[in-house]
Design a protein that fits this description.
It is a single chain. The chain has one domain (3-195): Jann2411-like fold (Orthogonal Bundle). Helix content is 46%, strand content 13%. The chain is built from eight helices and eight strands; from the N terminus they run ααββββααααββαββα. The longest helix has 20 residues, at 176-195. It is globular and about 65 Å long. The chain starts with a helix and ends with a helix. The mean pLDDT is 89.
């Protein structure tokens, strides 16, 4: 679990998925006069290996090849594309489901028994297969309903993935005080212009 996922109280069982989806930062807004810098934490195979190692997903000796990086980025893109839809629309969006399924085939899981009961684990043992716990978090979250609380901020200037802790699970913005306020202010100004 990262400092970021702890800060926003993301459940442990979705923390790797949350962190992985947010390795791409496309926020493009200005806050207190300072533009937010966009960034990507996974621009090289070395960065992916370091990210995985920090989360206990890979041994320090794991070698990630450039083709493996491309596969990981395809998984991240398909996860973000899937999460951008309202939870009820996700399963009905054939294109997002197809793309996610295609990416998931490269991270096969098997059911294994251990002292705690049954668990999903990687079917392969190469370095890239160590991202499979993220796929397992997708599966487990879908089964227990917590994945429906993992959403993408509705602000086009943000698009950050967040965990919706509201009781009715109806939040649309990662932070109401920032993204929500900006969107509401913009809508208000638009209504005022159209009325005048």
């Amino acid at each position: 679990m990262s400092r970021e996922s702890r800060k926003f109280n993301v459940p442990d069982e979705l923390a790797n998925l949350y962190d992985f989806a947010n390795t791409l930062d496309v926020r493009r807004f200005t806050h207190h006069g300072v533009p937010h810098p966009q960034g990507d934490d996974l621009t090289s195979a070395k960065e992916l290996a370091a990210w995985m190692s920090q989360r206990g997903l890979a041994a320090n000796s794991a070698k990630i090849a450039p083709a493996m990086l491309a596969t990981a980025l395809e998984l991240r893109t398909s996860v973000r594309d899937y999460l951008q839809y309202d939870p009820h629309e996700r399963r009905r969006n054939k294109e997002a489901v197809r793309a996610l399924n295609k990416a998931l085939t490269l991270f096969p899981l098997v059911v294994a028994a251990d002292e705690g009961g049954m668990m999903l684990r990687t079917a392969r043992e190469d370095a890239l297969a160590r991202l499979s716990p993220i796929v397992a978090e997708l599966y487990d979250g879908s089964r227990n309903g917590t994945l429906d609380r993992l959403k993408m901020c509705a602000s086009e200037e943000c698009r950050r993935v967040f965990f919706d802790r509201s009781k009715p699970s109806t939040r649309r913005w990662c932070m109401s005080s920032l993204c929500g306020n900006r969107m509401k202010t913009r809508s208000y100004r638009e209504r005022q212009r159209n009325a005048g």
